[in-house]
Amino acid sequence: MRLLVIRTSAMGDVTLTTPVLRGMREQYPEVELVLLTRSAFKPFFSSITGLELFFPDLINRHKGFPGLIQLFKDINRQSEIDYVIDLHDVLRSKILRFFFRLTGVPVAVIDKGRSEKKSLITGKKKILLKHSVARYCDVFARAGFPVVPSKAKWIVPSSGIVLKAGFIAEMQGVLNIGVAPYAKHKLKMWPENNMIRILGLISENHKCRFWLFGGDEDSARLTALQTKIPGSTNLSGKLSLDEELVFMSNLDLMITMDSSNMHMAALVGTKVISIWGGTDPLGGFAAWMQPDNFSIRITVDELTCRPCTIYGKGECKRGDFACMNWLTPEMVYEKIEKSILNEQQKIGHHE
Fold first, then answer.
1. Is the pLDDT assigned to residue 124 strictly greater than 90?
2. With contact defined as beta carbons under 8 Å apart, do 21 and 48 qualify?
3. Whose CA is closest to 276, among 180, 189, 179, 200?
4. Domain spanning 165-347: which CATH class is it, in words?
5. Which among 72, 186, 250, 256 has most CB atoms closer than 10 A?
6. At residue 10, what are phi and psi to the nearest 5 degrees?
């Protein structure tokens, strides 16, 4: 049996396939898995033995409708597919799975819970929705493969990647705290001054170093931010994705917004404090296997307009961005101190 699994974006959603794909390899070693995803995401899957990767060329060879026909042919030319597992359910994957259906290949498609998510943001039902990882598991179950997410470390960086010597020296004898202060959408971002203040509070009470993470689009902002945060280093543009994963796996703590950095850090096994504004863990996108109290937010009972968005798009309807502005640095620091920092200081991993 050979399964084609489709998930090409976005980065955070792609990372969340790893507990399920690893679980499939552990529980069904006789089933061959081919993952259709972007080549940039290869480091997420390098340690999953027996997982075959297929990278579409969406810029040239596989662009547009003719390109999807070519993609269908290229996949079949490489190997015969017995079942299609669509974890994406977007126009491109709909067309591709239609081609497979025409040739008699059965398809299982993710239920994204759109109506449930709409009820969540309209305020009709403020309940915890199924996590994305569980939704991925459901698709495999419908295809006849009930799977339990792996309990092993989900993303294991490539063994050949090591931290640069200069970074290793700076990490000795301190708490190493990663900081990813930005996100794709502004409804997910805590005001920058608040982040500066909380890092100041942490450094006043703990011997630590801050490592700033972000994409290429964040590079200029992170460069400016570094000048305002003593003991910080901007890593944007300095590391490959493989190196980022290695770096995250060596941190004592990661502080993030609701972003792909949150998922990456959690999936390499690092403790993650996430700060939530317009979105909420209720939507099913919480950092995988992190305690609920590590997700810091104003409760939906206290601020009934939350969550106002599932993915972070849109504008604040109140106009005062209360979901983020009510989260003071002192409030967040107290939660971090109780949850993690004192414990980490006692352990003294880097002393």
1. no
2. yes
3. 189
4. alpha beta
5. 256
6. -85, 175
Q: What's residue 349's pLDDT?
A: 47
What amino acid is encoded at 138 in this protein?
D
Q: Give burial (CB, 10 Å; 0-12/13-18/19+) of 254.
A: buried
Beta strand segments in the chain, E? 2-6, 32-36, 51-54, 83-86, 107-109, 175-180, 208-212, 232-234, 253-257, 272-275, 295-296
> Beta partners for 255?
179, 273
- The string of pLDDT tens digits covering residues 41-75 is 999 999 999 999 999 999 999 999 999 999 999 99
Topology given in CATH for the domain delimited by 2-142: Rossmann fold (3.40.50)
CB-based burial label for 318 (10 Å; 0-12, 13-18, 19+): exposed
Would you say residue 340 has pLDDT above 90? no
Q: How far is Cα 305 from Cα 64, in angstroms, rounded to an integer?
A: 39
User: 140 Cβ partners below 8 Å, 6+ apart?
Assistant: 20, 24, 85, 108, 146, 147
Domain boundaries, the chain: 2-142, 165-347
Alpha-carbon span 62 to 268, nearest angstrom: 32
The residues that bridge with 273 in the sheet, in sequence order, are 255
Number of neighbours of residue 54 by Cβ within 10 angstroms? 17
**Element of type H or E holding 196:** helix 192-205
Averaged pLDDT score across all residues of the chain:
95
Query: How far is the C-alpha of 239 from the C-alpha of 245, rounded, in Å?
Result: 9
Q: Do domains 2-142 and 165-347 have the same CATH topology?
A: yes
Phi first, then psi: give them for residue 146, nearest 5 degrees. -55, 125
Contact 272, 292 (CB under 8 A): no
Residue 44 has a pLDDT of 98
